[in-house]
Fold this sequence. Notes:
Blueprint: E1 7-10, H1 16-24, E2 28-31, H2 37-43, E3 49-52, H3 60-65, E4 72-75, H4 85-90, E5 94-96, H5 103-118, H6 121-129, E6 147-151, H7 155-165, E7 170-174, H8 180-185, E8 189-190, H9 193-196, E9 202-205, H10 219-223, E10 229-233, H11 242-251, E11 254-259, H12 270-276, E12 281-283, H13 292-310, H14 328-331
Parallel strand pairs: 1-2, 1-3, 3-4, 4-5, 6-7, 6-9, 7-8, 9-10, 10-11, 11-12
Helix pairs in contact: 1-13, 5-7, 11-12
Amino acid sequence: MPLPIKNVLVCDAVDNACVKLLQDHGINVDYKLKLTKAQLVEEVKGYDALIVRSDTKITAEILDAGAGQLKAVGRAGAGVDNIDIEAATRNNVVVLNTPGGNSIAACELTCFLIGALARPICSAATSMKEGRWDRKLYSGSELHGKTLAILGLGRIGREVGFRMKAFGMRVIGFDPITTQEEAKAAGIEKMELDDIWPLADYITVHTPLIPATRNLISATTLAKCRAGVRVVNVARGGIVDEAALVDALESGQCGGAAVDVYPEEPPKSDTTKKLINHAKVVATPHLGASTTEAQVRVAVEVAEQFIALTGTSKVYTEYAGVVNRDVLNNVF
């Protein structure tokens, strides 16, 4: 039985392609940004579905308030750590995401940041704008012949491996789900974590933030790495222990870091600010999915999935983006 989704509340900025597609299929859409939790607790009672990005947190309190009315929450993006999945499942609310929509954007940013760590182009460009000619100061190193470790071999991780292989890097990786065959097809040597640390010249993480991956890059794991290892995080804040990373940068154990995501956004903690301002760090404000193409793609995909849930389209016949699939047995 299709889900009766008639009224949708968009809580975070998404491309207008999302709104138009929903409206073209007879679904009413309201656009209300920057609602407080208290406001959303009241608003949710009048909607069948919500669309969010990373700014709005869909808590148990909000989901409980929408019980009986709310049918689905869609995340225009891959990560769903801002949605209480357990509470959604308890309330028979379908949670879905757009896992492939921003893969290329996040992959390309990762590759650019790896390059920026090898060749200090950001610092050199700033130096030039300030009227200096510091040619000798900004000598870099080649990626060719270096080893890149990718932790998390899903869509983004494999795309990064494929591209960095073209630079002549040896690409190794870890993922508890991806098979040896899948990794090999992407040109990646799959290994166990303990074997990876001492081999990596560069480490990039592409995992969700879950208990098993929190502080995956820590003082303990950094100590197992080669001196001067470089770290990239375009996945989620919290996967890298920021305090440990700062210490490793200052001791020289870590030769540089590129960071796009933070435990709190915008950053407020002294530790995060110290990391961002470190001379060996390239810091960006969560730009992983910030391309024109990716924003249109995730907007369209989340709308298509809502339309599929109503039974008026077969675009997503298998509900590819549904995170809590057990709920489907209860709502159909």
